[in-house]
Amino acid sequence: MDSSNDDALDIIITNVVATFRTRCHLNLRTIALEGTNVIYKPEVGKVLMKLRKPKITASIWSSGKIICTGATSEDEAKLGARRLARVLQKLGFKVRFSAFKVVNVLAVCSMPFAIRLIDFTKKNRPIASYEPELHPAVTYRIKHLKATIQVFSTGSITVTGTMGSFDFREAIRAMPLR
Amino acid sequence: MLTNTGPVAKLYLSIIDDVIENMRELFSDEGLEDRVLDDLRHLWESKMMQSKAMEDFRKNSINSSNFVLQLPASYSQTDQEVTASVVIPASQSIYSFPRLKNNSDTLATFSLPAGLAYPVQIPAGVTLQTASGQLYKVNVPVVVTQAAAGQQPVSRPTQKVTEWREPAAPRPAAVAPNTTHPQEVEPSSAPAPSVTQPPQPNTNYVPPTEESSLPQQPQDPAADTLLLQGADSPEPEFRLEESEPSPQPEPMNLSMTASPCGQSLDFQTGTEETLTQTAPLKSRDVDDILKQVIEEEREKAERARSLTSAKTDSPSEAVLGLDLDYSYSELSDIVQLDGPAGNSDLEEEEGAPLDENDFLGIINAEAIKALQEGDGSSDGNSISSSSDGEGADELANVEDEDPLNSGDDVIEQDIPDLFDTDNVIVCQYDKIHRSKNRWKFHLKDGVMCYGGRDYVFSKAVGEAEW
Question: Which among A90, A98, A100 is the top mutation candidate for probing chain B, defined by the most B β-carbons within 10 Å of its own β-carbon?
Fold first, then answer.
């Protein structure tokens, strides 16, 4: 609708969260002692391993489930996940890279104009929800895209959802602005 | 930095002393000669020197000298004589003895290097001032040495060639024997050696016990005073400064109350016996702050004493006890530099060794990582393409592809330089904190080998970026 300025929008993906499984039990203590760049959190029961190349932080559980966060694109997330699995394999675990799934993608974009939140909310009654005491942004949920959009009064918009990154534009377009 | 090597060297030497002395009895029980033990000690020390983990203590800079020789103005004439007579056998005559003569109008003062090897001959008429500020006027040529074990220290020297005067101390120069705080150690003085603190780095004392020569003369005023070296050393020597020629049999309460670390010491040696008795008291009176530290040392001292009880007589013990005062006063001064807490074990339990090493290595390997950037991107493409191909073959059980291609496609994280560093810290940790990629370390009781040299610390704070 009013997203004529769509093309000029810069949607920047800031975070991609993915999970995968190693299909084998992992000994967290071994990983903590022998791995490089690891933080052991025995109270929670996980090991954080940070990678440099794709800047990624992975939470490793002993069950073999690994959550990979911090990537800037889905491909990077996958690459990082594979690298991580490779590291675990080198540590001696019989790791199989399976069930890689991108769970969440967070993108940010900024409108060149300010937004009047109250009016916006009024116009989009059922879909948008605004609770200024809880959060300073309007939360706009697009069900069919499974995306959540947060609209700030400064014009910044964050989109977080499970869809692919290319769907972000769809989401923003779907949002009636002004 | 230089000043740090002194304490470390002393610490290590005192550790060596401690171990060797404690072993002496065992060795003799086994029927091995003492010579074996001495050989071991020589070997150990020479290896330590060779490794240059710490600088040769003998080469310590002049800054950490034990004491300052002040020549009275009248000496300007007799400079030559003085110089000649003050023969310091130390290999490095760093101190600018001759130089100073020329400069000063009134007083020629110069510092003797800390690494001074005893014995030192001091001509008459010279006023010695220890780092603690105590002044000793030498009336008769004396030889300052480190007494070897079994020497009759203090008590004898009463004949005193020297009379000790206090510097502007509030107390009268007279040996205030019974004053509860006869000893005071000036905060600045490193010299308070502590016999009871074997690990206590005495900046004054370098002395490898082997170097100590038996004092030729009965009176060996310990100009350096507190030469009480490691408690374990069987040669406690270090003649205590004696105040008056006459022995002061009165119990010197070596002031356990000497608790105030900041005061100058003067001990009246005459009372070795009392010293001994008061020795244990001393520890009690020690400042709370240093109490725990001292306790440890004392235990060691006790052991040492028990070991050396046969050899040394009470005076030495008294001397040992005396050192307690110094030790903690010294501790208060140097607590940050040395590991006062009896770091007899060099290796403490590792707190977070991996992290330490990681960061040390990571920082070094940054460049290499950057180089790998280029490789990574190209690999990414190959991986995605291969996985697509594999997807078609997916096994029934596996929900998704299960390639992993055994590392062919996936590049391993090569950080080979990570553990190549020789800089290692072995310590315990108080707190390790991280915010994003900024790390903060609060460490304690550690030894670190940095740039080939060893440093010992009781507290360390660090920051790093990953």
Answer: A98
